[in-house]
Design brief:
Elements (H helix, E strand, L loop, with lengths): L2 E4 L11 E4 L2 H16 L3 H18 L1 E2 L1
Antiparallel strand pairs: 1-2, 1-3
Amino acid sequence: MTLSLNCKDAGDPVCTHTMYGETEEELLQNAKKHGIEVHGYTEESWNGEIARNSDHFRKLIKTS
């Protein structure tokens, strides 16, 4: 089973990048990498954002 999360669904109005992972942990690590490399998050800002909105992000995860 592959999990996915689309950046636009997560709140970015322009980015259509989709992250994938075999586990929720792997998916969130890939999303974190994308957020830092593409959207300018820092380790601290990303961890704060995910912590505050973790339920929101989990609801957006799709399985295939």
